[in-house]
Design a protein that fits this description.
This protein is an alpha/beta fold. The chain is built from eleven helices and seven strands. The protein has helices at about 35-40, 80-90, 105, 115-125, 130-150, 160-165, 165-170, 170-185, 230-245, 275-290, 310-325, and strands at about 100, 110-115, 155, 190-200, 205-210, 215-220, 260-265. The chain has a five-stranded mixed β-sheet, with helices on one face. The relative contact order is 0.16. GO terms for molecular function: cysteine-type peptidase activity.
């Protein structure tokens, strides 16, 4: 067999039958790109809006972050690059969506979470997170952390689509019914329920973690507000805990009827107007990794820092991208 000549062509069409040098940084190894026809079969028209943070605070002075909180730095964007390649072969840009199956054990009811171009772009380009992305990451935590470690006996989730501030104001009875049923399903043991709370209609994300057994609420807000900023949220959470108390037939003196403990946690603080969703996801992940149903007021020693680094936030995005690829919904 003769030698194949090296090419001096400037266009790919002129280089057929010869070797062409190609930059190594443009080569992705180990991932198979799906065909266009496979993706087209799964297209679904999208008609939902994203819910995300619009709050803004001044940029804080950089503070040294604990070495123990560092995120993985090797190949920091390989799954995002892979997901981007997948999406380019699909009909997502045409307004279609993909459905993420949600088992009934995650939120108390079974359904499929739709993700469309807006949601994927949020992960790929670090913009404000929608409720769909938040819920997808909670399924990731359920599948990858809670299930393998048996943590579903100590932790659970509340669906933020049903419990955001808009729903609490417009449909308080429906919110109470949903949350009370979730709490009452586990009255025989102590359990911490994660509620990623959104201020509604494109608002701010924060984490409310509720231990109904001990009647303690942990409030983690990356803007460092406290619960008085959202009085409707506090009122309905207190009412839900009191309702569960009554259904469990727990007797307390009248003077202590409102003695529900709210702890404001000094958690890491965001430094821009888009990171609140990523912070909320890390708060849940780190609490699960610690396997503690109590959250210290000054946060966990292992994860204490002034703010999360870019690598720590990129870690969340990489986990999401890898998980979506593994689900084979594209």
């Amino acid at each position: 067999m003769g030698m194949i000549p090296q090419s001096n062509a400037t266009l790919l069409g002129d280089a057929i039958g010869s070797f062409v040098a190609w930059p190594t940084d443009l080569i992705i190894v180990g991932y198979e790109t799906p065909t266009k026809s496979k993706a087209k079969d799964k297209g679904i028209a999208r008609e939902i809006e994203s819910v995300a943070s619009q709050k803004e605070i001044p940029v804080a002075k950089k503070t040294e972050i604990s070495k123990r909180t560092g995120a993985k730095k090797k190949n920091p964007s390989k799954y995002r690059a892979c997901l981007h390649t997948y999406l380019e072969t699909t009909d997502i840009s045409d307004g279609c969506v993909r459905l993420i199956p949600m088992d009934g054990a995650i939120f108390g009811f079974e359904y499929a979470e739709p993700l469309g171009k807006e949601d994927f772009d949020q992960i790929l380009y670090h913009t404000q997170l929608s409720v769909g992305v938040i819920n997808t990451y909670m399924r990731y935590l359920y599948d990858k952390l809670m299930g393998p470690r048996g943590l579903e006996q100590r932790f659970s989730f509340l669906n933020p689509m049903k419990t955001n501030l808009t729903e609490m104001i417009r449909k308080p009875d429906e919110v109470r019914t949903y949350v009370v049923e979730r709490f009452m399903a586990d009255t025989d043991r102590e359990k911490l329920f994660f509620l990623p709370f959104n201020t509604g209609d494109g608002g701010h994300w924060l984490l409310v973690a509720i231990n109904p057994f001990k009647e303690i609420v942990y409030y983690l807000d990356s803007l460092h507000n406290d619960w008085t900023t959202y009085p409707a949220m506090k009122t309905i959470v207190d009412t839900i805990i009191q309702t569960v108390r009554a259904q469990r037939k727990i007797q307390v003196p009248k003077r202590k009827a409102n003695n529900i403990t709210w702890n404001r946690v000094e958690c890491p603080r965001q430094r821009n107007n888009i990171d609140c969703g990523y912070y909320t996801l890390r708060f849940m992940k780190e609490t699960l990794l610690m396997d503690r149903t109590d959250i210290p007021s000054d946060y966990f020693d292992e994860y204490r820092c002034a703010y999360y680094s870019k690598d720590q936030l990129d870690e969340i995005k990489e986990e999401l991208c890898q998980f979506i690829i593994e689900l084979q919904v594209l």
